[in-house]
Request: fold
Amino acid sequence: MAVARRWWWTLLIATWVAGLAGYLISSGIPPTYEGEAKLLVGPVVGTSDVLRAAASISNTYSELATSKPVLDKVLARVGLPAGTLIEARALPNETTRILDLRAQHGNPRTAAALANAMAAELIALQPSGIQLPEGQLTVVDSAQPPVVPIAPQPTLIALVSAATGLLAAGVLVMVVEYFGSTVNSTKELSDTTDAPVLGSLSLGRFRPTREAPVVVQAKPTSRAAASARLLAMRIAYAETEAALRTVLIVGTAPNDGSADFAGNIATVLESSGRRVLLVDANEEFGELTALFGLDARMGDLVRDVDGTVHAPSIRGTNGLELIPAGQGSSAELVDPETAGVVLGQLTRGHELVILHAAPIHLGPSAIAWARTVDATVLVAERDRAKRADVGYAAENLRAIGGRFLGSVLVDHAPRGRRRRSPMPERSGPVVRAPSPGRPIARPVDGAIARPARERTVGTMPLPRPPVPADARRTGKEGQAAPDESTIR
Reply:
């Protein structure tokens, strides 16, 4: 049943197509009609010996009726060419001594004529002399032109074809399930990641809009919204050594529902009274930015401007505070130390910071964020997430020494609006950390927050971890990197 729930649409289409094909094909076959004539073998009443003999003789007449000499005379009597293939049967009934003669043809009148001709030929076989009562033949019911054809039967053929199509589709689905390389259940997800499964989120046919990008806002009473609230509570109150202040949500493929999951979790926790900040750290695809309909900002999530590490601006949208994705060089790694500094500053004004990063095998920045945050949650989409990608992500998350909280299985990730907004032109080169020594000239984005909770990230000095003198990088003009930076 679990397999049928995942493949019900495929099974339904296969059944419908097979049944329709069977009906259309059978409807195109010329109809076949059957004429039927009935003969009584022996007298109506008589002694027991006569009746038993008549019953035995009925079997002999049935064999004679379908013999070649008799059928040739039948064709000649009806006027059909010699050698015409006809379907004729003689069915004896030893109890009633009724001999049932049947003949099939595409014309109903010809079918009836064939059955009557068979009866006439059998009667003509009787000797003209003395006739014994047990061997006499009497026509009980002569054949009439049938109205309804006996073949083909489109309805029956359609039902049989539909059953065959369902069976064939079921076998194919089982083969795909057995040899497939995708994650299909929470058990497979647990076995692949070797980590606990926090739950599943089924988004069904939900499609995000600009006004309601997450299901907990669009359909607050739905089962999906209830699942999102339960998952949010499991993450927020997970058993950890310290309270969770920063959580990373990472998927296994682009548009796999991990951004929708992060948006729903943040919305649930924000509505519960927590100060939540949602960060789109997925600069490769910017899924959260597109989900909430924001314009991608200019710059990187963590960037160095004139040797100073700057935290990006915060924007208010749909009751959330969100840092949209920026345009950066995704090939350059984010410095975990610098990322930790920025997260430390962001958590000073928020109870919980939720980040969404690109899949580990597509964006290396997820590793740096996973080392920095308090916990990481891996999201996999049912029937689409490759087991190799899921296992690779889980192995890397454990290898870096971060807190791997668990995994979540998402059903039917929305495939709606996912395009990144056009990026503004850069006013100067932007370099992501770690490149503190490279001079950059460009303005810092202004803070745009929602009116009800207007807020910008404050400015305070925070020393950068000491860097050995021989390991310091120099800029394009040879100046050394500063030992201290200002966090904005």
